[in-house]
Amino acid sequence: ADKAGLGETGLVYLVGEDQILRSELSDDASAQPLETKLEQDYIEQVATHESSSGDGADNQGEDVLFVAQNVGLIETVGTDFEWGIVGEIEQAEAYGSIYTMGRDVAGLAAVVAAFMLFIAFFIARRIATPLRAGVNVIAASSKEISATSSELAASAAQAAAAVAETTVTVE
Q1: Which of 82, 118, 142, 171 is least surrounded by CB atoms within 10 angstroms?
Q2: Which residues pair with 53 in a beta bridge?
Q3: pTM score, two decimals?
């Protein structure tokens, strides 16, 4: 059976109203056409001439995505029986690329965040260096002003003492 375009686990097969397999299943050698009855809920819907799609479990218990559609033999060919065509693929394979893409996007987001933090660090350093130099200049100026104030206070104290001596001498 040609599985081109169906992936590793994809299947397309025919089933009758009686839920008996009408074509081969490439993944299950024990499932024989015209002998094997399929019990999946979506196969039962084909038997009642309903179309459906969604997720469910296949005949081996694997979680699958499926689509089931009547072939339309009664209307188009005029037969007194109906067949359904069913396509299914395991969910792990169907969603695999989505999971991979999500993991890749998360990895890319982490790399971008790390790059942004790296850039932010250098921008912050570039801003902080002149600010730090300015703070150092202000601190040095403050020490100089404090020293000058101390000298002025000492000079004022000496001048006051000299004035007091002069005042005492004049009296």
Answers
A1: 171
A2: 67
A3: 0.59
